[in-house]
Amino acid sequence: MLKIENLVTKFGSVVALDGVSMTAHESKITTVIGANGAGKSTLLRTISGLEHPAQGAITWQGESIVGRRPEDIVRLGIAHVPEGHAVISELSVEENISMGSLFRRRKFKSDIAKAMDEMYQLFPRLQERRKQLAGTLSGGERQMLAISRALVSRPQLLLLDEPSLGLAPLVVEQIIDSVNTLCRTTGLTVLLVEQNANTALGVADHGVLLALGKVVADRPAAELKADENLRAAYLGY
Domain named ABC transporter: which ranges (predicted)? Predict the structure, then answer.
């Protein structure tokens, strides 16, 4: 279980996360939704060690991860897919995926080839393009590649930031369905950040709504999706 308590992250005088408390339960999809500037991406970056909180606690399976290096957090079983379909353009698809094994936990060092094959089964288009440079892929293919690279580390918790950004609806549906299948069949815990609230709440078990760095709602996803007043006030629809 991922537990966050009274988390504050600042950029100079700007408070990006203002006392955030929430929980992501094991083998469930928890989504964090909110408008631009709500603090969603900052939350994931703070969990993964890319940003340092000014105060608060983050524990994963009962162990504090505040102050840990990002690579050590990966070794604890947490993988982060940042927004923007981030891949290394000059490397091939295969080389990009294999980079996900760099900071694997020791017990998973022996099955890298098996894990890569699993990614090709999850996203067959990547297998067709395994020798192709990542920079030549479409936006959807780059997002599949970024997710595959994270999953090769054999995470128990996947931090997924705006996977739908800039992608066609059919591609988004395929990616979200794949992540959902992984969660339901392997026990993967997913913390999904999305601006598209309908997409996120449609697949998630639980939802957290952020506004200006604060938690304004923390409920089962179906309840959040059904709350028209909350949607109108904070999500604009």
Answer: 2-237
Please state the pTM of the whole predicted model: 0.92
Domains and CATH numbers, the chain: 25-44+76-205+216-234 (3.40.50.300)
Distances (CA, A) of 72 to 61, 117, 137: 15, 25, 30
Q: What is the pLDDT of residue 109?
A: 60
Q: Where would I find the beta strands (DSSP E) of the chain?
A: 2-11, 14-24, 29-33, 55-60, 63-64, 78-81, 157-161, 189-194, 206-211, 214-220
Walk along the chain (237 residues) in steps of 10 and give the mean pLDDT of each run: 97 96 96 92 97 97 94 92 85 90 64 86 91 91 92 92 85 88 91 89 94 95 88 73
